[in-house]
């Protein structure tokens, strides 16, 4: 029933009647819930949208290691340190599955890194905020991984096969991440008044940025209509944000935390919470590169890339040597 978005400021999705037969066949397969696989025909816009979203998602996983990595050496116990190490390693794994999924669409890993390092590609706004205390680590697990699960469970049903399959494993690991975060906070809120206050402070700082993870409101979301027509996205940004609030507020109450939103109110009629508007000016500022930690995060990634140059050079030299040897022994055998 849909097709490629016409490139204007307003997202317009074309009807089946407006498509040529090949495109129509593609859309009908998507509408019927069939998976699209790498070597199959796809509209160029579909391919580009996936490369954009999957690579941004991969970058988010890799950059997302940085705020938590900041606390590995300062975790309060050996057990918490082992858990945090495992979580941060999982995020590296998620990045790798996702880079592989994007590569199936014809973009190279080097190109994707270049886009990240030059600031052309985005990564999740959430990772541009600092982790000031140990409570931030629990709060990230609870809220950030919680928001990620809310967003990523529907992505398991994405129409593009490699992305949807990568999501299945990622979601399983995100569930563990969320539970470890909540568990760390449960322990802290049962502790001293200072520990409880630390959790409330972290919650106050991470609540609004977590709501922004779902993207701009639906009326400002340029890609949603077409992405939903292609079944890349299954839900709009506002739908998922609402589900996240409804799920998370009772969890906050269980921790005896106050949600930092004076407009938060249960709405019996809609069966969900009404809540305040995130500060969209702050959001657009952060994704434009001007958040509190954007420069620090990008510099850390660029440094890691530069520091790894000797290793990439070594691997390339070794691969070339092996290829030369294979060619030489083939010639000798002829
Ligand atoms: N941050 O038309 P819209 C994790 C951009 S990692 C930055 O609604 P779309 C974890 C958007 O890209 C979780 N930019 O876009 C890791 C677009 O700009 P461009 C990461 C954002 O794509 C480590 C513009 O705003 N999750 O869980 O339809 C430790 C207009 O937006 C953001 C994913 O990447 C944002 N929050 O919808 C712990 C999930 N929101 O590209 C945890 C996959 C929007 O035109 N991605 N923008 O320059 C998606 O589901 C979708 O891409 C989004 C946005 C819902 C994020």
TrEMBL record:
Gene3D superfamilies: 1.20.1260.10. One of its GO terms (cellular component) is cytosol. Keywords: Oxidoreductase. Pfam families: PaaA_PaaC. SUPFAM superfamilies: Ferritin-like. InterPro entries: Aromatic_CoA_ox/epox (IPR052703), Ferritin-like (IPR012347), Ferritin-like_SF (IPR009078), PaaA (IPR011881), PaaA_PaaC (IPR007814). It is an enzyme of class 1 (oxidoreductase). Its EC number is 1.14.13.149. One of its GO terms (biological process) is phenylacetate catabolic process. GO terms for molecular function: phenylacetyl-CoA 1,2-epoxidase activity. It comes from the Bacteria. This is Ring-1,2-phenylacetyl-CoA epoxidase subunit PaaA. It comes from Rhizobium leucaenae. The lineage of its organism: Bacteria, Pseudomonadati, Pseudomonadota, Alphaproteobacteria, Hyphomicrobiales.
């Amino acid at each position: 029933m849909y097709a490629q978005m016409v490139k204007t400021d307003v997202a317009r999705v074309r009807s089946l009647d407006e498509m040529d037969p090949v495109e129509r066949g593609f859309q009908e397969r998507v509408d019927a819930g069939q998976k699209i696989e790498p070597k199959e025909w796809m509209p160029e816009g579909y391919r580009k949208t996936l490369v954009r979203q999957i690579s941004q998602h991969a970058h988010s996983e890799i950059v997302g290691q940085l705020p938590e990595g900041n606390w590995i050496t300062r975790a309060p116990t050996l057990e918490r340190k082992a858990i945090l190490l495992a979580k941060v390693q999982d995020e590296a794994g998620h990045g790798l599955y996702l880079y592989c999924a994007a590569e199936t669409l014809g973009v190279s890993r080097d190109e994707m890194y270049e886009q990240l390092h030059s600031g052309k590609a985005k990564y999740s706004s959430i990772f541009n905020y600092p982790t000031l205390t140990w409570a931030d680590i629990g709060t990230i697990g609870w809220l950030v991984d919680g928001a990620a699960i809310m967003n990523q469970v529907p992505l398991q049903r994405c129409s593009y096969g490699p992305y949807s399959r990568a999501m299945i494993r990622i979601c399983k690991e995100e569930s563990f991440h969320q539970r470890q975060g909540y568990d760390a906070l449960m322990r802290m809120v049962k502790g001293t008044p200072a520990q409880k206050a630390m959790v409330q402070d972290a919650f106050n700082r991470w609540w609004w940025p977590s709501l922004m993870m779902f993207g701009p409101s639906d009326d400002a979301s340029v890609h949603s209509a077409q992405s939903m027509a292609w079944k890349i996205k299954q839900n709009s940004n506002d739908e998922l944000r609402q589900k996240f609030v409804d799920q998370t507020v009772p969890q906050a109450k269980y921790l005896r935390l106050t949600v930092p939103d004076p407009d938060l109110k249960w709405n019996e009629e809609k069966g969900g919470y009404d809540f305040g508007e995130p500060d969209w000016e702050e959001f657009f500022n952060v994704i434009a590169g001007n958040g509190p930690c954007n420069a620090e995060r990008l510099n850390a990634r660029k440094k890691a890339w530069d520091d790894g140059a000797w290793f990439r050079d070594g691997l390339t030299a070794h691969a070339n040597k092996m290829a030369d040897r294979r060619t030489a022994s083939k010639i000798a055998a002829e």
